[in-house]
Fold each of these.
Amino acid sequence: MKAAMKTPRRPVPKKPSNPCVKDPVGVYCRVRPLSRPDQECCIEVIDETTVQIHPPEGYRVFRNGEYRETQYSFKEVFGTLVVQKQLFDVVAKPLVEDLIRGKNGLLFTYGVTGSGKTHTMTGSPGDGGLLPRCLDMIFNSIGPFQAKRFVFKLDDKNGVDVQCEVDALLERQKRDAMPIPKTPSGKRQIDPEFADMINVQDHCKVEDVDEDNVYSVFVSYIEIYNNYIYDLLEEAPFEPIKPKPPQSKILREDQNHNMYVTGCTEVEVKSTEEAFEVFWRGQKKRRIANTQLNRESSRSHSVFIIKLAQAPLDADGDNVLQDKEQITLSQLSLVDLAGSERTNRTKAEGNRLREAGNINQSLMTLRTCIEILRENQMYGTNKMVPYRDSKLTHLFKNYFDGEGKVRMIVCVNPKAEDYEESLQVMRFAEMTQEVEVARPADRPICGLTPGRRFRNQMRGGPINEEQAVSELLLQNFPPLPSCELLDINDDQTLPKVIEVLEQRHKLRQMLSEEIAKTVHAFKTVLQEFDSSVASKENYIQGKLSEKEKTIAGQKMELERLEKKIKTLEYKIHILEKTATIYEEDKRNLQQELESKSQQLQRQASDKRRMEARLQGMVTETSVKWEKECERRVAAKQLEMQNKLWVKDEKLKQLKAIVTEPKHEKPERPSRLRDREKPVQRAVSPPPAPPPSNPITQVPNSQRLVSNPRVHRRSNSCSNISVASCVMEWEQKTPSHKPASGTSNARNRQQEPEQNRDYNSSNRRRGMCWTGVTELPRHRDELEIEEDRCHRVIRLRHRRSRSAGERWVDHKPPSNVPTETVMQPQVPHAITVAAASEKALAKCDKYMLTHQELASDGEIETKLIKGDVFKTRGGGQAVQFTEIETLKQESPTGRKRRSSPSNRDQPEDAADSEWTDVETRCSVAVEMRAGSALGPGYQHHAQPK
Ligand code: ADP
Ligand code: MG
């Protein structure tokens, strides 16, 4: 046996599978309830996938001083309250579905003895397990499509063949005619336990069974005990005296690398009852063997194999297609493993110990195989998996090596005694779920059109079959012997004929009855079929109309959506256009806005400029008018002062006449003569600088302009005072302006050259007295004035100046030092800051240094010179004779007013310039100590 097991593997090409897709072994855990409620429980179901094991009292496992609880996770965990149906739906149903779709499956229960393996697999009375439920589901699914018995024939090489229905019928008859061997189980009695288990009443079935196939179910039941395989369904002749020990079977590998038990009984079953009956038979035999051979039942592995053969109907849908290649044989192996506990725990002795050891050996091999498989898969190693080391692993080799769906139910009893064994079971189970098995490939679809069976039934296929059956039966009629009577005494022929005829008659009657029965059966089938067809038709019609409605609804929805899409597209188009227009508008408006804002800014700046200009104009005008007002006030003041002065002078003269009566009389005419004498004025410039003249030479770069402006004048109208003359003249020329350098300069700029000459001559002629006197502008104006006043200008010769002249140099402290190279210097002068009578009494010449701002912004220094006279009243009077103007100017700038060539001109010519009205005016200042007019200054005409 061992040698056979270790036969080297043949390198046969494998059946095409789907190696890419692999599924892990599905491991489920079922926790059975405790037998007694007072038992200690050491397993808890945490959730749907987790169980926790904790050591029982007095059996504590410590790791690092901590009490250790272990949790194990599985695909699903079924607690104590889970019923068989729930377990079946989750674990076994998919395997049955696979079986019907032509795929292999393996389901085994694993656990220690008493943990509920058999309860789970077979079930308990009144509570059918997975096995009867699987059978029930299979027959519920394939019931109406089952082939006639013997249409499928299993061969002894794990293969299947097909034969026509007639051959199958004949074979059936032959088998029926065979004497039934006498076995203890030969007489079929209905076992109440069996009836309880089979009564699953689940009506569970696979929905999408291929109706164009015909199916047949074959079951076999084997037991692996002590590494021997026994066929539990083998019909051994009953030996009541010395029963033979059962013959063990050997394993072989078929052409698809599936292992099979050679010569194993495989029973074709047509219903759940029949199948379960076969199983029950095997079960009974197992029990008997255990009893007879003194075996421990829990030490054996039982394997119930359900094989499903299926082949397509031919094109007519009438008969099964006679093509072996088209047959699919799938199998579902339901394995109830032996208890996984260790030998010593069972207290087995002798023969039993050996058995137990072996049993453990099988399970050990199973563990080793799983471990190595897992290692190979996880770490890519290629270790040989020792399937052949035990019958158990060898039998299921191809499930792990090849393809199929493998599921394991780990059964655990939570009682404390099983704690250690349960731990082992859990560890193995957890490891097992890390092994992956190739998913079985889908069965190739046969090329025939679907719905063949249905069409054939509509055509009345069953009638043809009936005819064939009748013909077949007629052939079975006993042949008629020769009816020819050659001898009158022939008493054999007739009786023979009669006998045959009687036989035939009997047969005919039997056939008639059969036919009647068949007809009846057929009628009922037909009725059933009709009703099923009608219901199916109704159902299909309903579905069809439903679908049509749905399609119509969907079409309408589609149309509606299309319309909506079109509308939305149109809307989008319109919106896009509008958006473009708006954008255009926005751009235009923005441009407009920008231009407007620019315009506004321009206007604002214009406004600001205008405001500033107007402001400027306003200030200018107000300043102008202020100045004008001041000027007028000053003019008025001067006028009034002059008037006052003239009156004062008259009064003085009258007083003098009154106070100096007789001895003074002869002088009066001279005095009057004196008065009548024209006022002699200083004529300047002198042709050459006199020794006393403070003006020195003029350098090229920086010229001091000597511009004598005050002239000695003689008044032809001797009895009219100079002041009154000036006043009168001022009244005549109200439009004249103060000697403002700016206005003069401006006028000069505007006037042509000749006019400028004229003006300049005017200026030279003009008299400057404390900066308030202004000159008439036009010569003709002046001439008119001159004529009116009948003034005669007479040049007065320069007074000879002795070297002994003494000067009062009056320099007001407000003067600014000019810091020019040339400075006016008067030797032997008495320099005073303010004019004092004391100083004047000592000197006969007076010079006032006066500064003012010229029109070009330069400081103009004026040296106002005069002669000091003693007045009759004992005071001092100064008659101004000349004004020297000292000014800095750039050589490239203004035209020189006084040049050496001018100076060199004849005196007459020079003097002729001074013949205008201005030169005819004279001013006299009398300084009196303790004068009531102010700090010692008094204006009065001082006749010479
Ligand atoms: P095993 O086959 O593992 O040795 P069994 O299936 O024979 O164990 O179970 C032993 C006993 O426990 C049986 O009497 C069975 O009815 C009972 N039992 C096992 N599992 C359950 C369960 N889930 N619910 C109720 N009873 C159970
Ligand atoms: Mg059992």
Note: DSSP finds 23 helices and 30 strands in the chain.
Amino acid sequence: MDYDIKDINLAEKGRLRIEWAEMGMPVLRRIRERFQGEKPLKGLRLSACLHVTTETASLLKTLKAGGADVVVCASNPLSTQDDVAAALVADHEIPVYAIKGEDHRAYYSHILSALKHRPNLTMDDGADLVSSIHFIALEKTDDLDESIRGWAQGLSPGERSAVLGEVRGGTEETTTGVIRLRSMERDGVLQFPIISVNDADTKHLFDNRYGTGQSTIDGIIRATNRLLAGSTFVVSGYGWCGRGVAMRARGHGAHVIICEVDPLRALEAVMDGYPVMPISKAAPLGDFFCTLTGDMNVIGLQHFLEMKDGAIICNSGHFDVELDLPGLRESSTSRRVIRDFVEEFTLTNGKRIYLLGEGRLVNLAAAEGHPSSVMDMSFANQALSAEFMAREGAHLEKKVYPVPREIDREIARLKLESMGVEIDTLTPEQEKYLSSWELGT
Ligand code: ADE
């Protein structure tokens, strides 16, 4: 079996940590038990580009139980848990291409390995796998990373279209990936249907809000061991992820400031009780800065220069583009790693800025990502969306589709059941009242 991981001898540690995570994933467990019997993914090759974590291991085991021939590559160079990668290879015979700290070249060569699997189904977190397939199929090989370009250019036209020809459809986990895919759909280049897992209520209302909220603060605390109480904590972006981080930072006793570009979201932040201001005004005030916007250069060099000596900056958005890192590096007179995941930059004005996790997702770089009980719902959406795509993909258009509402509701129902929470049901009289426009009073 082909694979590229750090060290197969880490498998025992990974095995135990996967077991621990799975205790928090009852919904995915139920799905796996059904998949085991029904094999809805039988005969399909599935390439996943995901953060290789204990929770992802549980998802991959479920897909394999459903009959899929699964391989996985990293969706971020810093998020891989090497012991989990080892356990997936050693215990589950799932080819893994992921090493924590891999460089750009290795990252893309791992995506290439996932592509060589010639997937029928893709599963992405950030859309790097799907966009690479499209660059190859649409002959936009100049846009590919050089580690894939040579291989793609060596393909005959027939082989190139075969890369695409075998894909029935895909699923996408994250806000950033969905934005990329929607722009592909808008430009008329999307070549197969995608289910936007991120848009399920049982995904973004929980994973993005409570998962990112807790794991981002966890990453910041693990990296720095600084006290949040009494500090000023600036959150850029008040989407579901930003709301979660702001809420948890406030819970720690921080004075939270929100920076936003969307007037509705900014207004919501105001009414949630936060001071809202542009980053140019927040820059001199913050002790901690965290970006979660999905856009680039949200905090730029002019802002770093305005910050207090000792300010801590990090990102919890998908890509490492939200902080102007090239600007920071170029304008620093010295830099050193002062502790794990904390790099000190001394600016030309003498002030020191501390960057966490190289500006990559701090929750996965410096901590372990979202806890399993929230990934339970996200990955239940992934598994059921893959099943849906296996069944329906051939009839769908080349568009981005939401997760079917019945799947979303069923996941919520199963989650409540696993928590022992009962809820009311409508009486026939109430059903009738809700469905008839004549009954007003
Ligand atoms: N994204 C955020 N947290 C995650 C986790 N624990 N596993 C996989 N993907 C994630």
Note: The chain has two domains: 8-202+371-418, 212-365.
